[in-house]
Design a protein that fits this description.
Blueprint: H1 2-22, H2 28-32, E1 37-42, E2 48-53, E3 60-65, E4 68-76
Length: 85
């Protein structure tokens, strides 16, 4: 009887942990929606993270400094930015 109780407790614990794991999945709608930040790239020296925003003008390039990631900087170009290094 003790073995049966122990097995049921282990089974219940396993089912409970499995149920909790399924709640941590990213919702499909969120995963496949259009992203605001696109074309992310790290500078050669590793000090800046460059990116573009899908809602902005294609001639604008944004970047963050690794030392201060809360401050966003912007560079404007007269033509669309296709590639940067």
């Amino acid at each position: 009887m003790r073995i049966l109780t122990l097995l049921l407790a282990v089974l219940a614990g396993t089912l409970l942990s499995t149920a909790q794991e399924t709640n941590t999945l990213i919702p499909r709608e969120t995963l496949f929606q259009e992203k605001e930040i696109t074309r992310v790239d790290l500078s050669k020296d590793g000090e800046k993270v460059y990116y573009q925003r899908s809602s902005s003008d294609p001639g604008r390039l944004f970047y963050l400094r690794v030392s201060e990631p809360s401050q966003e900087y912007e560079i404007r170009f007269p033509d669309p930015v296709v590639r940067w290094e």
